[in-house]
Design goal:
This protein is α/β, with parallel strands linked by helices. It has 7 helices and 10 strands.
Length: 215
């Protein structure tokens, strides 16, 4: 669920402007999963543009407090959301921790890095939601460490049905700055894509794991 329409449209436009989101229906990308995709999202680019990263941290901070109240701790999901998570925590004057994909194999074997007390209220910051699996593993790690996870915020979501189901099953409240539907609407309005390319992008979202480009 997006925070609101205005934020979704503005965020989508900024991501397109800096090529954090690339739309290329004619020459699809290949994801690490092996899926063919007409879209590629790299929100790490946000950190290289001060005005845009400030916009993102301020929108996150405002909406986090509105939706969840001020938490005790901000948690970032490694590695993509560590940078933006730190910015949000700094802006809100809160402690920060981050969550590894799995526990370290040496030392203290931490999965949650940083100081976290049992019972503290935590909001998790993520950069991108696809299926939601890795994001929800981070939530589980925080709960196992004793955190009270209030919810998760992310910059962008593809809006896959499987992600919606996964978050529903896990009973995790997810809010995003932007989503796929608002991105496509804006991309057509701003002439980033044609109406024909819009059809291709909509078809892909219906079945991303099996989608193939057709001539």
């Amino acid at each position: 669920m997006i925070f609101n329409k205005d934020t979704a449209e503005k965020t989508a436009e900024l991501l397109l402007q800096i090529n954090a989101i690339k739309l290329n229906p004619k020459n699809p990308f290949t994801w690490a999963s092996g899926w063919n995709s007409p879209i590629y999202c790299d929100n790490r680019l946000i950190l290289s543009f001060p005005a845009i990263r400030n916009f993102v941290r301020e929108e996150f901070s405002k909406h986090i407090e509105n939706e969840f109240g001020k938490p005790d701790v901000i948690a970032g999901v490694a590695t993509g959301a560590i940078g933006i998570g730190i910015l949000v925590a700094e802006y809100m004057g809160l402690p920060f921790v981050y969550v590894r994909p799995e526990p370290k194999k040496h030392g203290r074997q931490n999965q949650v890095e940083g100081f976290l007390q049992k019972g503290q209220n935590v909001v998790v910051v993520e950069d991108l939601i696809s299926t939601g699996n890795s994001s929800l593993l981070a939530v589980e790690a925080l709960k196992e460490a004793g955190a009270n996870v209030k919810g998760m915020v992310a910059i962008f979501t593809y809006g896959f049905d499987v992600a919606t189901e996964n978050f529903k099953k896990a009973n995790v409240d997810l809010h995003t700055l932007a989503d796929y539907n608002h991105l496509l609407t804006l991309a057509v309005a701003k002439n980033y894509i044609t109406e024909k390319e819009l059809e291709t992008l909509q078809e892909w979202r219906e079945s991303p794991s099996t989608w193939r480009i057709t001539n």
